[in-house]
């Protein structure tokens, strides 16, 4: 009997020892698992999501800026000094609004309306309208002005007007006004209300200038709070590229101003000019009139003003095109500068109407130099003929896009070379 009791006690003690050891092992495993979870979470927070929480620590405005890219600036230059000038940039402006819950009396509303009228130069009718809007007592947001310059907003804040606040927004700004506006284009709104480049550089390079939006994704609980253990993905925005044009600021201003004066002098409806570096192909000047101010792009009489006439409107070259035919003839060895022909004033080219000289002039015996000097139409028929002339027009690239990488470029039209117009 005593041995049985002793045996039972020993068995009980052994079972208790095994159970205790299992509990210790389970506790250790739990501690290790929890430690691993903490280490992994710390790695995610401190390494993988470091940029997000750095932004979050500086406030919601910083998070916002990390999610929305800054549109790239556009510059022109002085080709002699190398100095660059912004021609399209971003500018901080303010939307001024009233929280009418803080404007609690008619007297205070009058005082605020009078102060706003002083800053924004309201007339009596406008001031009365503003007074009625801010005297509602219950509306937390009544928009009063938009696109307000920073200096004006600072002046307004110093007045410490009850209920008057402002929201910072970014506006595309063109410090050179109308200068090279047909080259630069402008930033407008699409059907969804988003900013998008239109025409010129802003339009053609919109994707590169706009950059890439970032994103922040996280799980939230029923009360809208973040769930840290559910994970988070954060991608900062990629700002848009900066573009430097080959346009020379001084030459652009000088030549375009002279062109505008000539346009007025001769009563022309449109005018355009291009100045190019023949060694590099760099465009130094590109003028197109009528033009517009991209800061107020909506204030135009016709949408056609946005088109850059130098690349959009076909150019009727006329007699200056004779150098193309002559260049082809010299290249083919058909003629030399001293080759002669007899001009009778008319030449048959197989059309219903013969080619004739201007004012029906007859020049008689002429060299190829004389053909160019006197702009003899029949001489060009002698030089190349229809087939070879057509070949060189296409070889020189007429009728094709230049690839200048500006919006609204149109190829020239050389269809008349392949058909009888009857003229």
Secondary-structure-derived class? alpha+beta
Mean pLDDT value: 84
Q: How large a portion of the residues is in β-strands, by DSSP E?
A: 15-25%
Total number of helical segments? 15
| Topology pattern, helix = H, strand = E | HHHEEHHEHEHEEHHEEEHEEHHEEEEHHH
Instruction: Please state the CA-atom Rg, rounded to the nearest Å.
Output: 38 Å
Low-confidence stretches: 1-6, 58-65
Q: So what's the overall shape?
A: flat
Gap between N and C termini, in Å?
Answer: 137 Å
Number of strands: 15
Largest beta sheet, briefly?
Answer: 5 strands, mixed
Helix content: 40-55%
Description:
By secondary structure, the chain is of the alpha+beta class. 40% of the residues lie in helices and 20% in strands. The chain has 15 helices and 15 strands. It has helices at residues 2-48, 50-57, 60-67, 106-120, 124-134, 150-158, 181-184, 200-204, 206-210, 249-266, 309-312, 322-332, 368-374, 377-383, 385-395; strands spanning 74-77, 84-98, 142-149, 164-173, 186-189, 195-198, 215-218, 232-235, 243-248, 271-276, 283-289, 340-343, 346-347, 355-356, 364-367. Strands 1, 2, 3, 4 and 9 form a five-stranded mixed beta sheet that branches. It has a two-stranded antiparallel ribbon with strand order 5-6. A two-stranded antiparallel ribbon has the order 7-8. Strand 5 (186-189) and strand 6 (195-198) form a beta hairpin. Helix 4 packs across helix 5 (124-134) and helix 12 packs across helix 15. The longest helix has 47 residues, at 2-48. It is flat.
């Amino acid at each position: 009997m005593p041995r049985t009791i002793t045996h039972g006690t020993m068995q009980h003690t052994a079972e208790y020892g095994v159970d205790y050891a299992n509990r210790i092992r389970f506790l250790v495993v739990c501690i290790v698992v929890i430690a691993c979870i903490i280490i992994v979470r710390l790695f995610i927070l401190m390494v993988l999501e470091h940029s997000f929480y750095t932004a979050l620590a500086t406030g919601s405005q910083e998070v916002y800026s990390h999610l929305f890219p800054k549109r790239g600036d556009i510059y022109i230059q002085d080709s002699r000094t190398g100095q660059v000038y912004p021609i399209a940039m971003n500018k901080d402006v303010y939307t001024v609004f009233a929280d009418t819950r803080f404007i609690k009396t008619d007297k205070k509303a009058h005082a605020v309306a009078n102060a706003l009228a002083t800053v924004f130069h309201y007339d009596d009718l406008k001031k009365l309208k503003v007074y009625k809007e801010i005297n509602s007592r219950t509306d937390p947001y009544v928009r009063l002005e938009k696109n307000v310059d920073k200096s004006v907003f600072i002046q307004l804040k110093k007045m410490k007007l009850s209920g008057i606040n402002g929201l910072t927004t970014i506006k595309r700004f063109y410090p050179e006004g109308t200068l090279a506006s047909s080259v630069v284009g402008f930033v407008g709104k699409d059907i969804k209300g988003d900013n998008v480049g239109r025409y010129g550089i802003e339009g053609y390079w919109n994707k590169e200038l706009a950059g890439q939006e970032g994103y922040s994704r996280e799980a939230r609980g029923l009360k809208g709070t973040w769930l840290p253990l559910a994970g988070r993905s954060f991608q900062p925005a990629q700002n848009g590229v900066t573009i430097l044009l080959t346009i020379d600021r001084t030459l652009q201003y000088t030549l375009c101003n002279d062109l505008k004066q000539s346009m007025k002098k001769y009563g022309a409806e449109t005018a355009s000019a291009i100045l190019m570096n023949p060694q590099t192909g760099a465009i130094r000047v590109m003028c197109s009139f009528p033009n517009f101010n991209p800061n107020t792009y909506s204030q135009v009489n016709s949408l056609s003003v946005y088109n850059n006439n130098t690349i959009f409107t076909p150019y009727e070259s006329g007699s200056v095109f004779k150098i193309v035919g002559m260049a082809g003839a010299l290249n083919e060895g058909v003629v030399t500068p001293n080759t002669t022909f007899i001009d009778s004033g008319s030449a048959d080219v197989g059309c219903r109407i013969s080619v004739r000289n201007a004012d029906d002039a007859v020049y008689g015996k002429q060299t190829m130099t004389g053909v160019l000097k006197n702009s003899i139409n029949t001489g060009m028929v002698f030089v190349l003929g229809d087939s070879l002339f057509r070949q060189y027009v296409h070889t020189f690239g007429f009728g094709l896009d230049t690839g200048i990488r500006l919006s609204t470029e149109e190829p020239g039209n050389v269809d008349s070379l392949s058909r009888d117009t009857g003229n």
